[in-house]
Amino acid sequence: MQLIDPVVLGIGPLSPDDVVAVARHGAGVVLSPEAEQEITASRKVIEALADDVEPHYGVSTGFGALANRHIPTELRAQLQRSLIRSHAAGSGPEVEREVVRALMLLRLSTLATGRTGVRLETARAYAAMLSAGITPVVHEYGSLGCSGDLAPLAHCALAAMGEGTVRDAAARLRPAGEVLAEAGIAPIVLEEKEGLALINGTDGMLGMLVLASHDLRRLLRTADITAAMSVEAQLGTDAVFAADLQALRPHPGQAVSAANLRALLADSAVMASHRGPGCTKVQDAYSLRCSPQVHGAVRDTLAHAELVAGRELASAVDNPVVTRDGRVESNGNFHGAPIAYVLDFLAIAIADLASISERRTDRFLDVSRSHGLPAFLADDPGVDSGHMIAQYTQAAIVSELKRLAAPASVDSIPSSAMQEDHVSMGWSAARKLRRSVDGLIRVLAVELLTAARALDLRAPLTPAPATAAVVAGLRSDVAGPATDRYLAPEIEAAVSYVATGAALAAAESVAGPLG
């Protein structure tokens, strides 16, 4: 756990940075006085309905297709416990810690709005678990992305009840009750509506969208870096990135990408070497020349996804909800369609971004297109294979990314005896997007590794100061051109260089902040 300031949950929306701080960096969570007041006020509404002769969904009735059964008062605590135990039905691999923490935080954020009707001690228990680094075990499968991420959220609620399995702050797998007791957290005993309020949200898919968007912001700037290195090392031109040419097609992302490329390629001796009347090239291949158009379109897609995420972070997703004027109303806000669509959209954009990166990489390896570089960038082609198989690895990942780009949100399988007859599959869209982000990191790493080798082979010509800084940073872990070496560790070093943001930091140390 990192020693960073806790995030204060009020009645307003969380910021994406707060989500990342809690989910990824272990920040604790506290409820603001305003949030505690709202929670207390809405709980009074639920308690006032406990003895009402009129049925109220989730308070005095069953759930889903069983909502027509009236539940007597003496069975309502059992109703809530049974809901959580039966819905904690996930299967498959364990979900990553950061996703589970995001899931819990976003559910708590909705509780903090006061629109769910839970007791204050229930909300405080979630905050205490997050602050203590207690992470319930959640499984890969179990959510249809409608009526909430039911099974994943139920596993979290089960842990808060002191049941099931968690990982403690040291990541050890242990019984939930034991870890809660060690942390001084009393297991919650659910009352009317509370079980439903803890599972009826789109928090898992939203958490994964926020984390993916955060990573993609960095990776898009890194993609501009690798593109600049490729354009430079392949003796391309930066003239096509001129601001006035880009302004003829005024997409905002395209303008930002082109500006980055101009900054990264400034003062390049490699590029200066082939300017002038002696250069016979008319124009570069699409993968070089159209980099801003493709990278920019991904930026604009991400901006739309972030707009949707921002709206969701300002939402109170539950069913039924307690309105500010004291009504308890059913609704359909738990449907994950808005999130599911943009999750799928991002997977499509990532696949294409990786595809153009792989095409730039491949040009380095073909003597008919590499403008004087040795075949496969090998030291002694024929004896050495150079980066031949690095491109195979890259191509295999790109192919996988194209499969992951097939949308999940177009599918729907009816459930709950046809009561829940149209679902979003947003959780599935989010799970595959996480794999897509990882694949993109690896594809960009191979391009960076290959372009750096090509720039070294252009010596004595020197690259731009910004791209030279990126090459120098890589060279602290990966040696320059020579006879064939064990390549897998070098690829993994490049993956780390991209994933940690170190490559971006190296470029920005010279070029200044990239957009």
Concise synopsis of the structure shown:
Keywords: Histidine metabolism, Lyase. With 515 residues, the chain is mostly helical.
Total domain modules: 2
Largest sheet descriptor = 3 strands, antiparallel
The percent range for helix content is 40-55%
Look up the CATH topology of the largest domain: Fumarase C, Chain A, domain 2
Q: Briefly note the structural class of the backbone.
A: mainly alpha
- Superfamily at the CATH H level of the largest domain? Fumarase/aspartase (Central domain)
Instruction: Tell me the strand percentage band.
Output: under 5%
EC number: 4.3.1.3
GO molecular function, one term: histidine ammonia-lyase activity
Main location: cytoplasm
Enzyme class: lyase
Model description:
The structure is a single chain. With about 525 residues, this protein is mainly α. The chain has two domains: about 5-200, Fumarase/aspartase (N-terminal domain) (Fumarase C, Chain B, domain 1, Orthogonal Bundle); about 210-410 and about 425-510, Fumarase/aspartase (Central domain) (Fumarase C, Chain A, domain 2, Up-down Bundle). About 55% of the residues lie in helices and about 5% in strands. It contains 20 helices and nine strands. The chain has helices at about 15-25, 35-50, 75-85, 95-110, 120-130, 150-160, 175-185, 195-200, 205-235, 245, 250-265, 270, 285-290, 290-315, 335-365, 390-405, 425-455, 465-475, 490-500, 500-510; strands at about 5-10, 30, 90-95, 135, 140, 165, 175, 320, 330. It has a three-stranded antiparallel sheet. A two-stranded parallel ribbon has the order 1-2. Helix 9 (about 205-235) packs antiparallel against helix 14, helix 15 (about 335-365) runs antiparallel to helix 16 and helix 17 (about 425-455) packs across helix 19 (about 490-500). The mean pLDDT is about 95.
